[in-house]
What we know:
The complex is a heterodimer. By secondary structure, chain A is mostly helical. Chain A has a domain of 179 residues. Chain B has three domains: 36 residues, no CATH class; 131 residues, no CATH class; 144 residues, no CATH class. Chain B is built from 13 helices and one strand, in the order H-H-E-H-H-H-H-H-H-H-H-H-H-H. The interface between A and B is large, with 110 and 125 residues.
Amino acid sequence: MRPEIVAADRQFEVRRAATQWRKAGEIVAATEQAIAALYPDDRVRTTRVFRVLFFFFTWFGWSSAYGLGSAVFFAALGGLEDSDSFAAFHLLSGLAMLVVAEYLHTHRRLRRFGVEEAAVWIGIGYVVGGGLWLFHRVADPTLTWMIGLGAWAIAATGALAAWRWGTPATGLLAAGGLFVALTQVPVAHLAWLVVALLTAWPLAHLSMASHISPQGRRRFREAFVVVTLAAYFACHVEVVEARLFWRFRAVAWTGGGSPSPPSEAVVFASLLAMVALPLAWIGLGIARRYRPAIDLGGILLLTTVGTFAFRARPQPEWLFLLAGGIALSGTAFALRRQFARRSGAEWRGLTALALAEDQGSAGAVATLAALAAFAPAARTIEKPGFDGSGGEFGGGGASAKF
Amino acid sequence: MRSPEVADAIPALIQNGLLSPPVAVAPLRVARGELLSVRGELRAVLYIGVLLLVAGVSLLVKENLDRIGPVTIAVAIGLAAVGCLAWALHRAPAFRWGMAESTDWTFDFLLLLGILLLGADLAFVEAKFTPLGANWSYHLLVMSLVTGAFAVRGDSRLCWSLALSSFAAWRGIAATRLGSELLGPSQTPLRINLILCGLVFVALGLALRRFDRKAHLEPLTTFCGALATLGGLGLFALDESGAWIPWAVIFLVASVVLAFLALRSRRFGLFALGAVAAYFATTQLVFKVVREPFLGCFWFSGSSVGMIVLLFLVQRRFRAAAQEGHE
């Protein structure tokens, strides 16, 4: 990433913090303006809504223009005789788009604007797609080669984009590509575990390091999320029992045969790891006050409980649900009490108080989650009156069939 | 949020007199990674707890109806609902028409649990004892009003959104049904209800703002209303089996009016909704009026560039207006 972009992003971090302090009522608008003047930002940025719209219309417009342009281009050349030329055209278009992305970042100084981010993503898509297509046409490789090369190409271009521009989600892409590529190596399962466990905490450390640019830190955080999920996936008992990694390889393998079932010790180790990994992440997250680890640990722990419940099938189900609900609600209330007792509602650097964070986004997420789970089923207006066979009803979010 | 840049900046801001040392303490600790708020995580734990409790109660009632008896179930759920609501009201901040959100992060979910249990109880009573008879669906309206009243009393956006969705459900509207409507056969009454429901929400939102009664609930209400209205108009406009041209024109006019009004009042979300809807309406009209297969690429590439230019100009205007507002 160019030094001037990193410098602008660092200034923007302070400006954004000032906006959050103003929204939280800790400073007034005039102070926010004074802070903004002290930390000038020379990049062209926009709001979240406009950013999404710019991204969407750039992608959409490019795709349409590409279809039209390539049709005209090949018609002018006397028609499309072979797909090699089209694959090469695809690849070159992707490369050209990446050059455009560089131009938009440097000369037009766009940052978090949507257009330049769409250019990066279009470039990655066309470079990887066109490159693979061309490789397939020229070398006629096996499926294993195609999957492996495609995944490595995705990982490499994602990493390149993350390093050069820090484009959102390229950290996810790079790490995701790496793990897909690892499914095609001879000891895929072990490779996943080793790579995931060895890289997780260095990535977490880099996502907090001051010498890394703000956008670079976010990309490392994305990679940490992927690596954590990959580690858990590799540990999961259903994956182990189904010998999924063997099957991933078998997609491209024509040797036949079927895998032997895992031993009891391996299954036991898998069950143990499904508990240990989330707990370790929560523990380390609390110790380092690292939110992604705490959140991922919590989500994975719930997944583990869900998996165990699915396997054990506790009866009656309603009792299990009620017990789970009471346990979680009870935990929440116990923590509330514990935090309230302490000075500043704080324990080991964790607090239950709202800090100057983006309350608007948190509120929107909570509202959407509540609506998704509790919005009542709609009545059928075409058939008014009582239906003797029963019906769906509810209210205030409660819906049920009796 | 942890940020080395902010941690470096805060001492300089204190030195410049822009931040007072007491105000800077918490942000500095957050920026250094010494302090982290887990309020969202605690709320998520309680949310999942409430989800499981409601699911467990529903299953308990369903599986044990004959054994326990309807009266016992109705009374038990009712008591639980009253308990939750009483707790929530006891903890609620003093009522005022302005913003008065509770600082207690458990408040919203206890109120929500109480309302959900009350809704389940009312639905159960209606199913077993049919006090409303053929008008059974009115319990959704009752629940919408009750939920709305609690939302206003407790100043809860969560419950307010649930009140709106209960009202929509009373009019036969749910997100899942709209999905099937897009793919399945046309349901004119549903579309009409969607438009009317949207207009009611818009009117409610305007009233909240006009009379300054819980005006902070207005953006959510108006957005839901605009979304529903445009959704209904859009469904008519897309349905070529009916008189789609007048509907498409109405859809376009409504979208443009919304975008224009949102632009004037500097509402990003509403502007985006209006702009995207106007784009869809124009595209529908252009494609159906000019039936030319090659038009697609020309139209989409050209119109996308046009939209980008338009959005660029509009966002610049938003920014300029915001800066003027600050000055």
